[in-house]
Write a structure and sequence with these properties.
heterodimer, A: alpha/beta, Rossmann fold, 2 domains, 5-stranded mixed sheet, B: about 350 residues, alpha/beta, two-stranded antiparallel sheet, 11 helices
Chain lengths: ~325, ~350
């Protein structure tokens, strides 16, 4: 099976869907002539022309709104936010227009649109460019929210997102764009609302998505050496959420750690922890633990940013906590 | 790339441009007078229903401004699109929405134009390409530009009319929508219904330049600006902008001066303006103006006018009765997601 990068998987998904359906187009900053700020849309301008690969000025509210208007009258826009930090200046279009038009119109106008781009921190980008905002969007009915962790999932889920008749928030990761994985040739779709068990284990469930799946895997590798067997469940889509698969895993292991980049208050991790305890309270041998960013804006300095962000060691610590395990002697010198 | 000079400013249509033959003008004005009168009577019935508790929430009446939406939409084709603000009853009616469905919506009934889920501010009518009333000031301007983008993308020569008040003119989305429409040459007419007050704030306290059409200059966009009390004049001036959009894919910013006779909403007694001021504007009531013109210039008889008025009265009385007697809204969980709405449609349930 071919091994390709996450960005190439996204490119394949968009290109295949644009070949298939002339109403699909890509719009955003630097998507055309520049070939994509992160080279996700490399070659697409040459292949599809500037009518369907549309460079915009820096007007997030403008082109997000253009997407909504085009979607409600029959087109299928893919709107790229260079990063989701910039979606905040367009959030009125997403929340007040895209998410509500089907409901406000009593079902008369659907809004089949994908808002996609990179989310999360990517290394010393400072407070305004390091945010994980999925919880903002998951909060709002009418939206679907997708966060793939692998090239395989990225392609299959983006194709589904483009064919979906609702507004879909598709959050990628700057740090995953260069990651590689097996992606089969040709067409496949991954349905929304189907979690993927990334690793089978017995003692503790880790629920993680997007970039956090990598941390969970690193933690699971280290814990395996200590004889702790971890199961990793990646929900892949946060709305709709496949609670069934997550709960089945938690009922099997009796313990759960949720890993989420981004702030702790009212975040996806809190929501997952709530839903898990509600559905599996009697099966839990310990309270569900969360690993998230610290409750502070991201600092620039490398050492400080590392303190704020989730990492494999924090995940290991949380797993030990829910398993009531003593930590091995800490000789790292850190507090 | 070198910066291109802005295109020359198009010459405005002279207000005294030659008119169509009197018979055609009369037919047209009869139609538009009837529409304006229906909007007026419909909204009067809303005000009454509001005081009776049949309508809740916000209710923004357009009374006094009817010539703007009526005259503008009269210059469109049925396949063209309209996007409006929360003051949307007249626009929806002018575009083809039925008084029954509009009133039933405000009454919160199942038979409402948006199934009772939108309310006064969010009328939608897919059958007539009325793309909704929007409640966030200026937020619908980029959306309207997107509909124009769709028109150009598909090349089907449709035009979009996007209405907003002068209160939008300082909002970011207004400028972003204008910027993209001008940059990409989209078939849209931006219609500023300048009623001199954004809620309770008069022009001189809200705009550094009170001529809203000037905003077009920065975008190299055509502009026009005129009084909005003569419905035929509105129709003619708007026709030129619509033609520019349809034939040349060029957007226009049109500022129409108008005046609302009522407060911003039903809860606003409009104490920020004097009775004299309101009375002065009421002398230019667009509905009365059209009636006078019909009888004095175009030879409409008293009988003809009374017949129009009787038919409007019957239409609105019927619509009120329909709204009163319709069942209350019921479905509200089927429109979060398109697949749920599709299931409901497949189930064959009708309103």
């Amino acid at each position: 099976m071919p091994v390709i990068q996450y960005r190439e998987a996204l490119n394949q998904a968009m290109s295949e869907e644009m070949e298939r359906d002339p109403s699909v187009f890509l719009m955003g900053e630097e998507v055309g002539h520049y070939q994509g700020a992160y080279k996700v849309s490399q070659g697409m301008l040459q292949r599809f022309g500037d009518k369907r690969v549309v460079d915009t000025p820096i007007v997030e509210t403008g082109f997000a709104g253009v997407g909504v208007g085009a979607a409600m009258t029959g087109l299928r826009p893919i709107i790229e936010f260079m990063t989701f930090n910039f979606s905040l200046v367009a959030i009125d279009q997403v929340i007040n227009n895209a998410a509500k038009i089907l409901q406000m119109s009593g079902g008369q106008f659907k809004v089949p649109i994908v808002f996609r781009g990179a989310g999360g921190a990517a290394g010393q980008l400072g407070a305004q460019h390091s945010q994980s905002l999925e919880s903002y969007y998951v909060h709002c009915p009418g939206l679907k929210v997708v966060m793939p962790s692998t090239p395989y999932d990225a392609k299959g889920l983006l194709k589904t997102a483009i064919r979906d008749d609702n507004p879909v928030i598709f959050i990628e990761s700057e740090l995953l764009y260069g990651s590689s994985g097996e992606v089969p040739d040709g067409e496949y779709l991954i349905p929304f609302g189907v979690a993927d068990v990334k690793r089978v284990g017995e003692h503790c469930t880790i629920v993680a998505y997007s970039k956090m799946v990598g941390l969970a895997e690193a933690a699971a590798d280290k814990l395996a050496a200590e004889g702790v067997s971890v199961e990793i469940v990646d929900p892949r889509t946060l709305r709709p959420l496949d609670l069934e698969t997550i709960v089945a895993s938690v009922k099997k292991t009796g313990r759960c750690v949720v890993v989420q980049e981004g702030w702790p208050l009212c975040g996806m991790a809190s929501e997952l922890a709530f839903q898990i305890q509600e559905a599996a309270f009697s099966w839990l041998d310990a309270p569900v633990a969360r690993v998230t960013n610290q409750d502070v804006s991201s600092p620039y300095a490398k050492n400080l940013e590392a303190l704020v962000m989730p990492n494999a060691d924090k995940v290991i610590e949380a797993v030990r906590k829910v398993m009531y395990l003593e930590a091995p002697v800490d000789d790292s010198g850190e507090a | 790339m070198a910066i291109q000079p802005p295109p020359p400013r198009p010459s405005p249509i002279a207000p005294d441009a030659p008119l169509a033959p009197a018979t055609e003008r009369k037919e047209l004005l009869v139609r538009l007078y009837r529409q304006m009168l229906a909007i007026r009577r419909m909204e009067e019935s809303c005000a009454k229903a509001y005081s009776q508790g049949k309508i809740g929430g916000f209710l923004h009446l357009i009374i006094g401004q009817e010539a703007v939406c009526t005259g503008s939409v009269a210059a469109l084709q049925p396949e063209d699109y309209v996007v409006a603000t929360y003051r949307d009853h007249g626009h929806c009616y002018a575009k083809g929405g039925s008084a029954r469905a509009i009133l039933a919506e405000m009454w919160g009934k199942k038979t409402g134009i948006s199934r009772g889920l939108g309310g006064s501010m969010h009328l939608f009518d897919a059958a007539h390409n009325f793309l909704g009333g929007y409640g966030i000031v200026g937020g619908h301007v980029p959306l309207a530009a997107g509909v124009a983008f769709r028109n150009k993308y598909l090349g089907d020569k449709r035009v979009v009319l996007c209405f907003f008040g002068e209160g939008s003119a300082s909002m970011g989305p207004f400028h972003e929508g204008m910027a993209l429409a001008a940059l990409w040459k989209l078939p849209i007419v931006f219609v500023c219904e300048n009623n001199l007050y954004s809620m309770g704030t008069p022009l001189y306290r809200s705009l550094s330049i009170e001529d809203v059409s000037m905003k077009a200059l920065a975008y190299g966009m055509a502009r026009d600006r005129f009084d909005g009390h003569d419905v035929l004049a509105v129709r003619d001036r708007m026709a030129a902008a619509i033609e520019r959009a349809r034939e040349r894919n060029e957007p226009t910013l049109v500022e129409v001066r108008t005046y609302r006779f009522r407060g911003h909403s039903m809860s606003d007694p409009a104490k920020y303006r004097t009775r004299d001021e309101v009375e002065e504007w009421q002398k230019r009531d667009p509905v009365s103006l059209a009636r006078t013109r019909l009888s004095e210039e175009l030879g409409a008889t008293d009988e003809e006018l009374k017949a129009i008025e009787a038919s409007v009265r019957a239409e609105i009385e019927d619509a009120v009765k329909f709204a009163d007697e319709s069942p209350v809204a019921d479905r509200y969980l089927d429109f979060n997601y398109a697949e749920d709405a599709a299931k409901l449609e497949q189930s064959g349930e009708t309103r």
